[in-house]
Amino acid sequence: MSTFLSTVKAAASQPQNSRPRGQRAKSSAAIVAQPTLGVLTAPPAAPGLLAGKDVEEHAMWLQIGLHESWEQEKRTLSQRWQGPELLQAYDRCGEVTSEYAKTFFLGTQLMTPEQAKAIWAIYVWCRRTDELVDGPNASRITPAALDRWENRLEALFEGRPYDALDAALTDTISRFPVHIQPFRDMIGGMRMDLVKSRYETYDELYDYCYRVAGTVALMSVPVMGVDKSYKGPLETVYRSALALGTANQLTNILRDVGEDASQRNRIYVPLDELAAFKIREEEVLNGTLFAASTGRIDDRWRAFMQFQIARARQIFTDAEEGVNQLDAEARWPVWTALVLYRQILDAIEANDYNNFTRRAYVPKWRKLVSLPAALLRARM
Length: 380
Description:
- This protein has a single domain, classed as Orthogonal Bundle (Farnesyl Diphosphate Synthase), CATH 1.10.600.10.
- The protein contains 16 helices and two strands.
- It has helices spanning about 5-10, 55-75, 85-100, 100-110, 115-135, 145-155, 165-175, 180-195, 200-225, 235-255, 255-265, 270-275, 280-285, 300-325, 330-350, 365-380; strands spanning about 290, 295.
- The chain has a two-stranded antiparallel ribbon.
- β1 (about 290) and β2 (about 295) form a beta hairpin.
- α3 packs across α7.
- The radius of gyration is 20 Å and the shape is globular.
């Protein structure tokens, strides 16, 4: 969000306000993230028993298929929100995006008005979804509540939005080839947050990263569009977008290890990789890998973090391949996301890998300096 919205949801806001599953400052816009779930019919069953990267592959090919066939299969959805009411709904989505994702909102100003409004609508849906498990009512959210939220999703894709903000997304999916599966998968990520606080392997973590961040890439690419001069396969563009979502989420996780462990009893980094570096789960939870008396980080943790950062950087590099195949108006916010988030990894290194008592962030002056560089990359 981000960024694809995984980025939007953190990099674009002030660094102290972001984390992997986002505990954000509340404001007048917070009510947007606390929807009334309503009562609808049961959601459809998940496709098979997909797990890990297979979940991402399934959704990606569904999305590519819709993108490629859009001219023949455009949706015609009628809804009761029309005219001024619908414009007001989009305006409200823009206000929320501007409040919570200032830098990204600025980037949307380079898009066409139709693209920008659609991205705002997607952002607001993602934010409302995220707030179900991380907002002020999170302690009362149950799997049944997420079932009802998924019911609402199915309804809005059928032209039956529950409220005005849903109506903005219903209108968006009638104008752009956005498939429902990434939205379903994001709700699946929220389900994981209700029951899962440890990840045994990188494949398990990858599944989570896709569901909470890669999904946003699949939602956003059809709106951002592909450069008309690009004649290659859409797979290249979508895989790059997915890589950016994964890299952003991994960066969130590495930045917030100490906070997640001490405040939420969560360890996102893979447990088998911790074991490979002879690090015990308890050492992460207790923060004893940083010695306050000496101000030094444990050598095992330093080596572990170097391994994690190297992988994240490689995924950022993979993401670069397809960014400039996006429509020209959409490239700058994506390059901004990539450049700024990669700098968080630099900040972790500058803190000597101490992500227990120090928070890595990109200073505002560096963000401002990076924006022109990102714009230059977008115009290459």
